[in-house]
Write a sequence for this structure.
């Protein structure tokens, strides 16, 4: 808070000098403009300062049961990065803590059909990026990796094994690879599908995928409450892949809970793919929202994001063994095998 406070003091000082000065009018006006700019910079910087939300009580319920098949497995496929800093992702993060935000897909292998959670950057990511608005491109630089489709093809993966692409949400960096999987259903809920269809630049890439022939398949949250979320969709009915609604970042954002089979005496690893509920794990574990600017521009309903953030923190407090996977946290993906 030191730098924002200093800037506000400097701004007030400049305004005082301008008010008292007997210099020519244009020089005084220039001083006032400078004071206003320094004040705005101070106020904006203050929105990046740590301000943790009140800690929730640990989640009181028990861990839902799951019977994942023994030959189930998970892999991650890195497809590129954007160059950011911790400050960009959560309040209290440092501007000097440079972080490459992962753009990744996760492949969940399941005998009843594999599922790709998001796609990361696809083959046409350059064109997709160009379709984003100028203000976004001005603050975003990225590096391409190998698209998920090419990584799978190179390993001789049989695409027929893919049941679908399960989206955490429909933003460009999560759907860019959809056109590379023509014929593979894209699994979305009705709310997110409406969000895609309604238009707007936020889902222009998802719509392009649809126009290119991607088949959107709707699922419903017919299951009961799951870890405090009001409803759920158990993809295979065995508790291994369970989707819950977590609206806020986009209207139909979801969290995907994946439970792997137990190995020996140790119970199966559990992952929570939280999408962009938080861009880095600290958003949840330190209960730090995105800074005001990112929240205002990036989330359709910031209070709803806050609620889901606290719910996930309550779950993490009760079940610290669960691995939180924010969609852009490379450290989280490093906790699963690479394809
Ligand atoms: Zn997003
Ligand atoms: Zn994202």
């Amino acid at each position: 808070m030191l730098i924002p406070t200093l800037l506000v003091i400097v701004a007030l000082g400049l305004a005082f000098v301008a008010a008292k000065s007997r210099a020519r009018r244009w020089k005084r006006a220039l001083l006032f403009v400078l004071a206003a700019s320094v004040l705005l910079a101070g106020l904006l910087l203050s929105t990046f300062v740590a301000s943790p939300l009140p800690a929730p009580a640990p989640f009181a319920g028990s861990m839902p049961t799951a019977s994942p098949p023994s030959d189930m497995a998970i892999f991650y496929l890195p497809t590129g990065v954007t160059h950011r800093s911790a400050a960009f992702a959560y309040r209290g993060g440092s501007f000097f803590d440079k972080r490459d935000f992962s753009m990744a897909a996760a492949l969940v292998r399941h005998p009843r059909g594999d599922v790709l959670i998001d796609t990361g950057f696809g083959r046409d990511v350059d064109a997709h990026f160009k379709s984003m608005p100028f203000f976004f491109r001005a603050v975003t630089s990225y590096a391409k990796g190998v698209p998920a489709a090419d990584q799978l093809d190179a390993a001789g993966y049989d695409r027929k094994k893919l049941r679908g692409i399960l989206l955490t949400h429909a933003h460009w960096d999560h759907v860019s690879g959809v056109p590379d999987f023509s014929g593979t259903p894209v699994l979305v809920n009705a709310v997110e599908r409406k969000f895609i269809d309604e238009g707007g630049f936020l889902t222009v890439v998802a719509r392009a995928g649809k126009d290119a022939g991607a088949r959107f398949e709707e699922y419903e949250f017919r299951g009961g409450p799951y870890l405090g979320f009001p409803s759920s969709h158990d993809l295979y009915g065995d508790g291994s892949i369970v989707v819950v609604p977590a609206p806020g970042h986009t209207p139909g954002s979801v969290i995907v809970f994946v439970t792997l089979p137990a190995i020996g005496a140790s119970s199966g690893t559990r992952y929570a793919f939280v999408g962009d509920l938080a861009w880095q794990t600290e958003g949840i574990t330190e209960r730090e929202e995105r800074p005001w600017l990112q929240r205002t521009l990036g989330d359709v309903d910031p209070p709803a994001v806050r609620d889901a953030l606290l719910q996930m923190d309550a779950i993490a407090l009760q079940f610290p063994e669960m691995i939180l996977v924010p969609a852009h946290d490379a450290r989280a993906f490093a906790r699963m095998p690479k394809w």
In short: The first helix runs from residue 2 to 20. Residues 2-46 form one domain. The mean pLDDT is 93.
